[in-house]
Amino acid sequence: MIVLKQAVGCSLDGSATVSRAERMVGCERFLVKRLHRNLDPDDTATLEQEITMSIQLNEQPHILPCEHHFVEGPYLYAIMPEVENSLYELMAKYYVDMMPEGLMLAILQRLISVLASIHELGHTHGRVCAAHIYYDANRDVKVGYAASVFDYYNYHLYPRKKLSPMWPESAIYHLAAAPEAHKSFESDIWMVGVVALELIYFGLYVSKREEFDNLVATILTHRKFPLGYFGVKENLSARQYSDGFVNLVTSCFNMEPANRPTAKQLLTWDVISHPLATRGFYM
Questions:
Q1: pLDDT given for residue 92 in this prediction
Q2: Are 71 and 164 in contact (CB under 8 A)?
Q3: What is the rounded distance in angstroms from the CA atom of residue 40 to the CA atom of residue 45?
Q4: Does the N-terminal or the C-terminal CB of the chain have fewer CB atoms within 10 Å?
Q5: β-bridge pairing 68-72 and 85-86
Q6: 153-170 tens-digit pLDDT
Q7: Which residue ranges make up each domain of the chain?
Q8: What is the mean pLDDT of the chain?
Q9: CA-to-CA distance for 71 and 38, rounded, in angstroms?
């Protein structure tokens, strides 16, 4: 018997809720995505398909797996390991001034590793952004995929941020999508660059696509991240990024999709295969 506890989030379309839960017997804790099957059969079919896709990659060490699923009454349940929150809460708690480059690389290495596994199966992710990357109680990064993608209720984070235009973190995967505007291996790689910007700036403080495109163009032209571009993190003026990090981001933002590196290729790059990026995840 499963006991649902606090609701912590929802599916991207709001059709399913995500709650912390535990078993009546024992102390096992986990997350449960619950969908009412009778309210929208299309949503049910979508979640069932996503569960199948997730299960194929349950052995990938950096993915947030869908470990089990079942139907009880009118509800479809998908069971996932418990995670603390998304990278946005991690940044708000521990790295509100800046995140170390080594930690950013460790996060990107895990994301790229997951994308390589997904692409090897012939699938695309399509929802890559920092809001869909989570950290667990062991302080390790887990990437949501298919059934395990959901949005945390992170309203409590906003008072900590400065008042300025900002794209909602849960919508960045489509607001900042690759310019070719269709899901592909290459568009997933574009989003690796987007996640890097989210980690640098603690979100994307832009109000429209034109501003984001101008930011990317500036980065590609000058191979630098504009200081104070979003009106936050003034101390970035003293921050330097390695050539390897800059090369990684600019390569992901190549305007010609065919010229972007594949996830498998990125895993061989020194900046990603270096111990600094592959080490354990520490606060």
A1: 84
A2: no
A3: 9
A4: N
A5: unpaired
A6: 875 554 444 444 578 888
A7: 2-81, 85-278
A8: 88
A9: 12
DSSP three-state, residue 232: coil
* Contact of 279 with 273, CB cutoff 8 Å: no
Residue 283 has pLDDT above 60, yes or no: no
Share of the chain above pLDDT 90, in %: 66
CATH architecture of 2-81: 2-Layer Sandwich (3.30)
- Cα 102 off chain centre by: 18
> How many Å apart are CA 128 and CA 132, to the nearest integer?
7
Q: Residue 38 carries which side chain, given as an amino acid letter?
A: N
Q: Name the class of domain 85-278.
A: mainly alpha
- Phi first, then psi: what are they for 63, rounded to 5°? -95, 150
Nearest CA to 192 out of 260, 242, 138 is that of 260
Structure tokens at 188: 């997933």
pLDDT of 196 higher than 90: yes
Q: Most distant CA pair in the chain: distance in Å?
A: 59
Strand positions, DSSP E, the chain = 2-10, 16-23, 29-36, 68-72, 75-81, 85-86, 133-135, 141-143, 151-152
Q: Which residue has the tokens 């997904």?
A: 118
Tokens encoding 61: 């060490």
**265: DSSP letter:** H
Which contiguous run of DSSP H or E holds residue 186? helix 185-201
* Alpha carbon distance 279, 283 (integer Å): 12
Could you tell me the end-to-end alpha-carbon distance of the chain, in angstroms, rounded to an integer? 35
Q: β-strand 29-36 against 2-10: which pairing, if any?
A: unpaired
- Locus of tokens 């969908």: 35
pLDDT tens, residue by residue, 119-128: 999 999 999 9
